[in-house]
Amino acid sequence: MVQPMLQVDGVTMKFGSLVANNRVTFHVNKGEIVGLIGPNGAGKTTLFNCISGFYTPTEGRVVFRGTDITGMKPHLICKLGLTRTFQIVKPLKEMTVKENIMTGAFLHVNTRREAEESADEILEMTHLHDKRDQLAGSLTIADKKRLEVARALATRPDMLMLDEPMAGLNQTEVKEVMELCVSLKENGLTLMIVEHIMEGIMPIADRVVVLNAGEKIAEDVPEVVVNDENVIKAYLGERYHAQSKKS
Amino acid sequence: MIEQVAVSGLLMGLIYALVAVGLSLTWGVLDIINFAHGEYLMLSMYTAFWLYTLFNMDPYVSLPLAALLIFVIGYLNYKIVIKKVIDAPGLTALLATFGLSLLFRNLAQFFWTPNIRFISNTIVTDKKIELGSVVLGMPQLVAAIGSIIMVFVIYHFITKTKIGKAIQATAQDKSTARLMGINTEKIYALTLAIAGAAAGIAGSFMSTFYPVYPESGMMYGLLGFVIVALGGFGNIMGALYGGIIIGLAEAFGAYFLGTQFKYAVVFLIYLVVIQFKPRGLFGW
Amino acid sequence: MVIIRDILRDQKKGIAALLVLIGLLPFIIQDNNFRHVMIMFVLFAALGQAWNIITGYAGQTSFGHAAFFGIGAYASTVLLWKFDVSPWIGMLVGGIIASLVACVVSYPCFKLSGHYFAIATLAIGEIMLQLFVSWEYVEGATGIMLPIKEKGLLNMQFHPANKLPYFYIIYLLFVLIVSIAYIIERSKMGFYLKAIRENPDAAMAIGIDTTKYKLYAMAVSAFLTAIVGSFYAQYVMYIDPFMVFALRISMQIVLLTVLGGLGNIFGPIIGSAILIFLSQYTRIILGGTGKGVDLILFGLLVVVMACYQPNGIVGLFRKFVTKRRREVGVHGTADVAG
Ligand SMILES: Nc1ncnc2c1ncn2[C@@H]1O[C@H](COP(=O)(O)OP(=O)(O)OP(=O)(O)O)[C@@H](O)[C@H]1O
Ligand SMILES: [Mg+2]
Fold it and tell me: Less packed terminus of chain B by CB within 10 Å, N or C?
């Protein structure tokens, strides 16, 4: 069998008595788009943090292209070719859009000119070209989301982990992100995407991993996952819960 | 001799605690380092000095007046200056409080000269209590007891009263506090005023044994920062313990290493503790 | 105002023009008093510039830069006084020591966030002061009178009545520091430092070793601060710990830079100009009564600026420039349409 791009092996993350991830195991193959879904508070962001080095898992292992990266510093993981974005966007506010992207590009180049060239390419790709000289802090939420992806792309990753890149976007914008993801995949990138917007993730994902209350409850192709009983229950449960809260 | 050192350190530490409580509240609630806090102390000491010199009022008698005056100054500081900088980015708030501190200190120097003055004859001056081998200076003893009472009064106020709870809620999460219907503006102003009053009281006590001059609050302000950071900002009991630790550290540092090292010891302790507890010993 | 606008638009030209102007002034105006003021102005502008690297760019607030200033002053002074070493070499040694000290003491503090880091640097500065006050080898609180050596560039000593050579030495150091700041600002390091300032998590996520870059910034900043300290000692010919390690120095650096504009090359220059000219000339006009009128005015200015212009004076110009640009822009499109 070929070695997977990313192997998550029994990852458990506890915050005191709260178990945010419970022995989660799955893998991502090279060139795949894997969706990571689950109701609010399921532990998706926590899992991202464990994989990208922002948290050290309480238990378990994370292996990226054969290298054990469990507990490794985030910047080293990024240098290995695995870059993540944040659900709560983190723009470098007092820098322009282009400068934000250049900062990412500096991972592989040392001169300003090379970084600019690299940034120009990505500006084009992510439809941010017109806004390149705006301060990142002044962007709309949709553009901040775009910038988040653009800056991560600038590090030229082999695998990209996106945390809700479509949240807060309108339909056209969601389409754009989907197209971008597909074209990245066509260029050989591997993607893992956390997303609540099913219309956004299901059509582009090769496989979907479902988390609920910290545990993996399903992993399959989208068509199977949407009909999975446990998954429906988890989501219905959430909706039911939300309704009962309202009344 | 050791007992004497410990007791003197403890007394001083309690006074530091009262100075630090105000700073801690300001830091915890408004999230700013108030560089003018030491100057509140200085202004209170001058208040005591002038009321004593002009009207022969004992500092203990003028204490409520000084407290009230600095309460008002703290309130006005918020209304006129801090309010405008509280949400500003970067070092703006710090710039503002540092500007205030410069202003107060140099105004004091302008009006009252840089001369060092003493309040020479209060009801406690030169009085002592001897407990075995330990000699307690009456001014320090009264100041320490007064300080610890005040610290507990403030603690009670913050944790038990409605306004106090609103202050606490604002410190923990400003936007939630607003949603709960708390007028955070008012809370900020009140916090700074209370911090001022605490410094005003501490200053009155200190004027009975400490020289009065434009820079007399500076070192206390600095030690205050260290105590607050040591205790964990926003935490009143943290300020109390921090104050005691620093008071003792200073006294023992002076005893074992020489007076010139006393502050070095204090700052060093802070640096060491913060390595293990990056948010202070008792962060909120 | 047009000049200012152009300066801000084309940074490189603007900086060059400003530097030339500063360099020429003391040459043209042959008043010793004025030259002294210019020396202090350039000296503090240089200090602000150095501090800006760690605080303005990297966002790590240091309240303890007097420590490095003092180390520089003492290093060259002690080497000259005890070992007859040229202050130029002393300056280099001081810079290196300051860098090392900066790395050793700030490394453990970098994990502290916000105010905690600032208070830690303040503590470090105060510890340095106390250490030097009680260090007998360097005469403790008494301070050191620098030995009079043969006059000339080698010993960095000149006839006291002639301030021009002193001015040009500090001026060259200043130009050096500005150049370094300029190069850093535009390089990968500048981008990385700003990213760390803006959002450390985002910085880490895009592969920035935040600790390493903060250390670099601290080392460079401390080095540059120390060499200015060495010059200062040579200029005043007498130092004691309270002069060079004072919190007052640390805070003056902070204030003038923030007042002028943080994280910007022009900031410290403008800030220092205001601080120094205000203090020197109020002193001259009102007589050296030590009444602190200059500091009252400065305090007031600082408060007013903080309240109404939080981005410093550079921010004020910026606003003006963007406004003008917008006007010009609107005008431009109107032309096309017409
Ligand atoms: N640093 C932390 N400390 C304590 N608890 C945390 C921390 N981070 C997350 N949690 C808890 O872990 C659980 C999982 O949170 P997480 O953010 O991973 O969920 P999520 O699946 O990303 O949810 P959402 O869809 O809302 O983004 C939640 O109960 C959350 O409160
Ligand atoms: Mg999440």
Answer: N
